[in-house]
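Pasting as-is:
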Amino acid sequence: MTLNDARRIIAAAEVKSHAIGQPMNIAVADAGGNLVSHVRMDGAWIGSIDISIKKAYTSRAFDIATKDLATHSQSGGQFFGINTSNDGRIMIFAGGIPLRKDGKVVGAIGVSGGSGEQDHAVAEAGAAAY
């Protein structure tokens, strides 16, 4: 995952964010879950900076969309309590999506600032640009 890749992903996510009228924090992580780039759009919540970065990390750490992980981490689910692992870096809100190249996960995008559906839609738009 290069910086240019991350910028392209973020740019596509920003277009979607503008289209739905919701400013977002958008983070892109590499294959190791490390932050490559982050953007806080004008008007996006400051508190969502950390959440977007952690969504990207979570999605890469487990190679799963965070909305799917959220479904499995509810009380009685197979991953219940997972959000307390990894020193609190695990986010189980929608908005994180793994990025794949040739079938292999090479990074992830994390988006935060709207509803779960909005976050996921913006992350999908960014992922599609990769």
